[in-house]
Amino acid sequence: MRPQNTIVSVLALLPQALASWPSFYSELESPYRNDEPDVQVSTLFQFPNNGSWVDNLALRRDGSLLLTRLDVPEVWSVDTDTGNATLVHSFPNATSCFGISEIDDDVFAVVVGNFSTTTYQPTAGSFSVQKIDLRSDTSGEEQRVFEQSVVVSQIAALPEAEALNGMATFTKESRLVLIADSPNGVVWKVNIETGDHSVALNDTTLRPAEGQALPLGVNGLKVVDGYVYYSSTTRMEFCRVKVNEDATPAGDYQVIASGFLPDNLDVTEDGTAYIATDPQNSIVRVTPYGQIALVAGGQLSTLMPGPTSCRLAADGKTLYVGTSGGQVAPVMGTFMEPGKVVKITLA
Ligand SMILES: *[C@@H]1O[C@H](CO)[C@@H](O)[C@H](O)[C@H]1NC(C)=O
Ligand SMILES: *[C@@H]1O[C@H](CO)[C@@H](O)[C@H](O)[C@H]1NC(C)=O
Ligand SMILES: *[C@@H]1O[C@H](CO)[C@@H](O)[C@H](O)[C@H]1NC(C)=O
Ligand SMILES: *[C@@H]1O[C@H](CO)[C@@H](O)[C@H](O)[C@H]1NC(C)=O
Ligand SMILES: *[C@@H]1O[C@H](CO)[C@@H](O)[C@H](O)[C@H]1NC(C)=O
Questions:
Q1: CA of 79 to the centre of ligand 3 (A)
Q2: Rounded mean pLDDT of 187-203?
Q3: Does 337 sit in the ligand 5 pocket, CB within 6 Å?
Q4: Residue nearest (by alpha carbon) to ligand 2 atom 2
Q5: Does ligand 4 lie within 6 Å of residue 160's CB atom?
Q6: Closest ligand 3 atom to Cα of 79
Q7: What is the pLDDT of residues 218-234, one digit of tens each?
Q8: Separation of 143 CA from ligand 3 center, angstroms?
C-alpha cells in the first residue's frame, strides 16, 4: 500500500496553518516573526542514483557529517568543507539504518533494522541499536579510510519493537538513548552499557493518527533542557514533554505546533526547532511559542525533495539537511532525484 494518497490529502493544509497563525501572538511573545528568514541553499553532496535515501544525520566534533541510509544498511561520512563522501560502515543482516546519535566523544549509536522502501513495511522484531566507535579514526578530513579505523559492536537487540526510527542521546551521564517506535507509538529507553531497555514514554500524541495508510506516530526526537521534543508524523504535531532523570514523564505532553508533516528535527538550547517536512519538501522553523516559519524549500519546490532530517552546526548558522530525493511523494507528482545533503546558511 502506498502512503502517497494519505500524504497528498494533507499537503494542502500547510499554507492554511501558516496563514491562520495569529500575528499579534508573534509580536507579543517572540523575538522571531514568522517571516521567511534570509538563507542561502546549496547542495553539499548528492548520491549518483535515484532510490538513495538519506534518513538521518549526526555531526562529528571535527565538523564532518555522518549520514544514515534507509535504502541500504550504510553509514556515510561527508566532509562539510569539500562535500567528499566516504562509506563508514555497511551493516550485515539488515536492510536499513535510521536514527544516529553521539553517545560519547566520537562514538555513535545507530538504529539498524529491516524496512522496505517500496512497500514501507518494517520487519517487526528485526531492529537493534549498534555502536560505531570512530575514536581511532585519525585519518583527517580528506582521504578517510574508515575500514581500518571503525569499531562496530551491538548495543542491544529490541525484538519487542515494531519499527525503530529516530534516536536521541538522553544525557551522557544517564547512559540512556531514547528511540522512537513509530507504529507502536512509544519511546524506548536503552541503556548503552547494559542493553537494558523499556518503554519510557507512551502517550496518545506518540501514536499514529487513526485511519492513516502509514502507521507513523512518533518519529524524530531531541532532548533539550529536561524536555523530550518529538515529531508525531501522521498526527501532524510537534510536541514536547518534561522528563525525570530516568526519562519517565514529569509533566503533560504538550503540542507546540501542528498542521504540517514533521519528520526528523533539531532543537536549539532556547527551544527553537528546525523540522524537516519530508513530503512537503521544506524545512520549517518553530519558535518555543509555536510560530511556524518556512526556512527553505516548499510544496512545489525542487530545491530539496523529501527532506528527512536536519542538524544545526555548532556555529548555530549552518543547517544540514538530508533528503530521500522525494521518494515518498515526488514533487508535483513526478519529480524525483537521488538523495542528497543540502547546506542551508542562515543569515
Ligand atoms: C533482514 O534483512 C537481511 C538482509 O536482507 C536478511 O538477511 C535478514 O534475514 C532479515 N532479517 C529478518 C529478521 O527478517
Ligand atoms: C540476523 O538478525 C536476526 C534478527 O535481528 C537475528 O536473530 C540473527 O541472529 C542475526 N543473524 C546474524 C548472523 O547476525
Ligand atoms: C576527495 O577525495 C578524493 C579521494 O578520496 C581526493 O582525491 C580529492 O582530492 C578530494 N576532493 C577534495 C575536494 O578534497
Ligand atoms: C502503551 O499504553 C497503552 C494504553 O495504556 C497500552 O495499551 C500499551 O500496551 C502500551 N504500550 C506499550 C508498548 O507499553
Ligand atoms: C531520477 O528519476 C527522475 C524521474 O523519476 C528522472 O527524471 C531522473 O533522470 C532520474 N535521475 C537519475 C540520476 O537517474
A1: 10
A2: 98
A3: yes
A4: 93
A5: no
A6: 14
A7: 999 999 999 999 999 99
A8: 6
Q: Which atom of ligand 3 is nearest to the CA of 84?
A: 1
Domain edges within the chain? 4-346
For ligand 5, is residue 51 a contact (CB within 6 Å)? Answer: no
- pLDDT at site 141: 54
**Which CATH number describes the domain made up of 4-346?**
2.120.10.30
Q: What is the pTM of this model?
A: 0.90
pLDDT by residue (tens digit) across 284-340? 999 999 999 999 999 999 999 999 999 999 999 999 999 999 999 999 999 999 999
Q: Other C-beta atoms within 10 Å of 119: how many?
A: 9
